[in-house]
Design a protein that fits this description.
This protein has 135 residues and is an alpha+beta fold. It folds into two domains: 91 residues, no CATH class; 31 residues, no CATH class. It contains three helices and five strands, in the order βαββββαα. Strands 1-5-4-3-2 form a five-stranded antiparallel sheet. It comes from Dipteronia dyeriana.
Length: 135
C-alpha cells in the first residue's frame, strides 16, 4: 500500500495530500514537525498514537487539519483528511523547535565541527527553517 509514498527531496517544500502514504507514524510525525516549523505555526495533537494521528493548527479558528491512519501493513500511514487552509499569521519563535528537534537537524554539523558557536545555529535555523531561537 505504498503506491503514493511520500519522498522528501532536499530543498523541496513539504506538501501533503489525501491518499499520500508514509513509511510509519514516526516518519510522518517528524515530517509534520518540520512542516509546522518551516511554515511558522504551532499545532495541537488531537490524536497521536501508533495507529492514527490528527493534528490541528493551534491558532484560534484556523481550519488547518491533517488526519492519517494505518493502512495495509502494520506500519504504513495514509493521509485520510487534509485541510491546507491557514488563517493565522506566521510565527518565528516556534514551540515545536525544541532542543531534540534542533539536535537532530545539526547532529552531523556538530560532529564535523565540534567547536562551532551557538550563534551559528541561530543563523542556520533562521535561514533554513524561518525560525528564531535565542542563542
Amino acid at each position: 500500500m505504498k503506491s503514493n509514498l511520500f519522498k522528501k527531496l532536499v530543498g523541496a517544500p513539504i506538501r501533503f495530500e489525501v491518499g499520500q502514504t508514509h513509511d510509519s507514524v514516526y516518519t510522518l510525525r517528524e515530517l509534520l514537525t518540520d512542516y509546522a516549523i518551516k511554515e511558522g505555526f504551532n499545532f495541537k495533537n488531537i490524536k497521536n498514537d501508533k495507529n492514527r494521528l490528527t493534528w490541528v493548527c493551534l491558532a484560534e479558528k484556523c481550519p488547518w487539519r491533517l488526519h492519517a491512519s494505518i493502512v495495509g501493513d502494520d506500519t504504513t500511514m495514509q493521509v485520510k483528511n487534509y485541510n491546507n487552509e491557514h488563517t493565522y499569521h506566521g510565527i518565528y519563535k516556534s514551540q515545536e523547535a525544541r532542543s531534540k528537534w534542533i539536535a537532530s537537524k545539526f547532529e552531523v554539523l556538530v560532529k564535523n565541527n565540534p567547536s562551532i558557536q551557538c550563534g551559528v545555529f541561530s543563523d542556520l535555523l533562521r535561514d533554513q527553517f524561518n525560525v528564531s531561537v535565542d542563542p
